[in-house]
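User: I want to check something. If I give you two sequences, will you return the structure for each one separately, not as a complex?

Assistant: Yes, each is folded on its own. Here is the first sequence with its structure:
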Amino acid sequence: MRKIVLVGHGDGCTGMKKSTEMILGKQDHLVAIALKESESLNDYLKKVQTSVDEYKKEGYDELFLLADIKGGTPGNVATLLGKQQEHIHVIAGYHLAMILTACTNNQISGHDLLKESNQMIQEII
């Protein structure tokens, strides 16, 4: 089973979680951790670290850390934490269709999620 943690600047990730749950219903395995403007890097790192540390204790065997953009503080925190443990997959540049797929397809790998998500964007354009 997989836990999915959305990380991002401001309320974007919490809005994505709300939109996901509006479509799919409550998703206990989906968490959003927003970086607030007034929050320090260390405080944000601690918040995300806590969620990462708890995923195995909560009974999950895999973790997707989905960041809003590559190179931003949330994405850098996700990358740092993803390198520290196995079974953590970090993807930057999430969108709603990607999150819906991650929530509904527990068998999809991080690589396939990214590939499928990129195809979804191309089909829309």
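And separately, the second sequence with its own structure:
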Amino acid sequence: MTDERTQFACAMAIAQAGEKVKQLSQQLRQKTSPADWKGLTGIRDWIVNGYDDIEYDILYNAITQDCSRVMSLIARLLESYPVDDTVTPLDNVQWYKDAK
């Protein structure tokens, strides 16, 4: 990730995902290991609050190694909830198919 535009886009996507996790209900988060959520919200805080300059090699590793684990977790959680017939089935979403 040497292109600054790509670096910024990836950082903001991860930060946004962390923000969304913070909005999940406690009940939903308790269905899984707290470490799964703490890591994502922690990296969000690191990016948004600028505790240090962003180390893009760490961010790259998080994206390439940890995102598939998070996507699998989300897919399992989504499967445990009934799907409204008016919503597009998850089977049509590529990341969901990849996570299965």
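Because they were folded independently, the notes below concern the second chain alone. The first helix runs from residue 4 to 22. The CA atoms of residues 43 and 62 lie 9 Å apart.
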